[in-house]
Design a protein that fits this description.
The chain is of the alpha+beta class and 161 residues long. The chain has two domains: 2-38; 51-156. It has helices spanning 2-22, 28-38, 59-77, 80-86, 120-130, and strands spanning 92-99, 105-109, 140-142, 145-147, 149-156. The chain has a three-stranded antiparallel beta sheet with strand order 2-1-5. It is elongated, with a radius of gyration of 29 Å. This is TonB C-terminal domain-containing protein. It comes from Flavobacterium profundi.
Length: 161
């Protein structure tokens, strides 16, 4: 009787313990794919920032402070007078600002949507010259990692007096 019970217990554990071993470990690639699918890649956890805006605690106010600083600094540096003389009909340009994870900056002029035509290469050249020593900007952060971010900013050229 003891031997039969021992055999039954051994068979029971063998049968059920095999089921524990049959379970496959989750596929790493599948887990990674699922996790990446949960991340909203269109938003950052923290917007880029400059020292002038570091003390602002509210996320939206800090974002607005950053954009105001960026636009004002670009306007002050590009020599609005030069562009007004070259293109008197132009009142605003769209500047694509790229902030790389290593804190390097890139500035490019976006093509205008309206019928006004102007030489983007000339305006890009002015941007590159005038914005070469742009103040430091801390890159955006996503999940604790510095990431590349891009913004298209309207820079007013013609100031109504």
């Amino acid at each position: 009787m003891k031997r039969t019970n021992a055999i039954l217990v051994a068979l029971f554990f063998t049968f059920f313990s095999c089921q524990f071993f049959d379970k496959k470990a989750p596929d790493k690639e599948q887990l990674l794919k699922e996790e990446l699918g949960k991340i909203n890649w269109e938003e950052v956890d923290e917007f880029p920032t400059v020292t002038n805006c570091d003390s602002v605690l509210d996320k939206e106010t800090q974002k607005q402070c950053f954009f105001d600083y960026l636009i004002q600094n670009i306007q002050n540096r590009i020599g609005v007078d030069t562009l007004q003389i070259m293109y008197p009909e132009m009142d605003t340009i769209s500047v694509k600002v790229t902030i790389n994870p290593d804190a390097t900056l890139e500035f490019r002029t976006e093509k205008p949507k309206e019928a006004i035509t102007y030489d983007i290469k000339v305006i890009d050249s002015i941007l590159q010259n005038k914005l070469a020593d742009f103040p430091a900007i801390e890159p955006a952060i996503k999940r604790g990692i510095k990431v590349k971010s891009q913004f298209i900013l309207p820079v007013i050229i013609k100031v109504e007096e």
